[in-house]
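Dig into these lines:

——
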Amino acid sequence: MHSLKSLLVAATALAGLVLPTLALPASAETLTIWSRSGQGDTLEAVAKAYDDTHADKVSIVTLPVDEFVQKYATAIAAGTAPDAVSLDLIHTPAFAQAGQLEDLTDWAKSLPYFEALSPAHLSVGTYHGRIYGLPLTTETSVLAWNKDLFARAGLDPEKGPKTWAEWKADAAKVTALGGDSRGFYFSGACGGCFIFTFTPLIWASGGDILADEGAKATLDTPQLRGAVDFYRSLVAGGMVPASARTDTGPDFLSIVGGRIGLQSIGASQIGVLINKYPNVHFGVTLIPGPDGGTSSFVGGNNIVVTKGAKSVKAVEAFMAYVYSLEGQRLMVSHGSLPARSDIAAEAMKGQDPRYDVAVAAIKVGRTPYSPVFNDIINSPNGPWAQMVNAAIFGSDPAAAIKDGQARMQDIIDAAR
């Protein structure tokens, strides 16, 4: 396995040995955008609508998610990269740092709705004060609860927890129903799942896991220790199934089984529950902090333009359509949350009201900023995944946190 950093370094070096001319689109009127698999048909649907109403055309090329970053880095080096890419927003800092993306600052700030664009997308799309990525698709994390189990446990089925104390009390009452009912579930051996569902507890407490544009690891803080202690208390109280400790992600959506009281999920899973599990009656709320603060992990894709692209204006024209009310409504109807807060309510008209919570999460949500995100966060052998599992399930959480911070900082320093 190659780290994203090493791929970009190799791509940058190779770029000097080949003709630095990007591949031309399939035709003079066609804009090609690469996208990763597993994203549904949102981008394809918007591209089709654009094609139907504009002279220029947009071709969406979908590549396997596990090969996407390497193929893009290789294509950049070979001069065959597409003009634009729908890039997992967490990777924007790495490509921007490597000098592989077009500076979109002037265009972005000229948009009359610039201040209404998703702040988390813009945060990770900015490098050294310049903007290299803008929001395309949007996802957030929220806390869901099973209304039927809440009712059986004597809880108000229409009210989700607003503090950690309420969360724990609700989980305890569901667990007390007996049998295989448990109050809470999380995938305990999945770094990507943890960053999506656990980090909001830290943010809602006023803490963070990274600082200085990803140059400093900040794991060993009262806020992270508090979140760990909270999860440990749920585990120790028997409110979490034992299988959670080794779940690497396949059982992430365990609430569908009807025996889990609470679970943090993504906005996209709201649709999954509504459409595929109609017998699971659920509510959603913002992920709370210890005393009522809230936060969320904002995910999705940024639109980025390859350095030296010939069709920047075509990208701008397509994105103007994406950001229009028509485009935003179409994005929403195919699974994405709106990227613009100023027209979000209009774009969401007719949608299930539970999505309103996911939209509200955009304003309070964040995305960790790191040029080495995969190495420190997503890798199953990386410091984040190893730290949270050992800290929550192991015998010495303090040591696990200190070790995780040291390992994370070593990786960050080595990549600089």
